[in-house]
Amino acid sequence: MSVAAEAVIAAIVIFAALRLLVARDVYAQMLYLNVVGFGISGLIGLTWRTDMGLVAALCTFVFSTLESNAIAYTLDKVRKIRRESGT
Hints:
The protein is mostly helical and about 90 residues long.
């Protein structure tokens, strides 16, 4: 079961990373970056089956959450700038 979960998460991360490289819209790039961050956190948790792996997965998850908050803040700022400039 774990191997299947790893494969699904890895496929999602690879797909999101490729979409991140191709996307031209800032909103899409930020959202794909968020998916990649949380996906890597999940892969670390599933792959490293030690206490250190748990600590690494927790740290990655916490920083992915902080990254998510930064992305939401940035998207809000971009939206305000676009609204002010009329584009």
